[in-house]
Amino acid sequence: MTQQLEQCVIRILSTDGGVVGAGFVVADRLAVTCAHVVLAAGSDRGQPISVQFYASSLLQKAQVLYEGWSPFDSDDKANDVAFIRLEQLPHDVVPAAKISPKMSPV
After folding, report:
1. Which helix (H) or strand (E) element contains residue 10?
2. Could you give all domains of the chain from N- to C-terminal order, each with its CATH number?
3. Residue 3: pLDDT band with limits 50, 70, 90
4. Could you tell me if 34 and 80 are in contact, meaning their C-beta atoms sit under 8 angstroms apart?
5. pTM of the model
6. How far apart, in whole angstroms, are the C-alpha atoms of residue 61 and residue 87?
7. Cα(79)–Cα(28) distance, rounded to whole angstroms?
């Protein structure tokens, strides 16, 4: 069975519930997004954040980790990363590393 990319996508929500960006589940209970998206959501490293799983529409509080936080720096575009610890994964959510890409001819 081939999993779909949507199974690893999360929405990052602002404090009023609006979508401010996306992230990807990369391991069990671990997601990654951009640090500027976390800030746009009204959160910061070490703070809670609201996420919604794209595949199931389930809402969940999560924790932005101190580890892996690398804020955007206009002089160093390689930064702008934030890791998020999830409470749990719904049964229909699959980490990105387990998704089998569909190959198509170029």
Report:
1. strand 9-13
2. 9-98 (2.40.10.10)
3. low
4. yes
5. 0.84
6. 7
7. 23
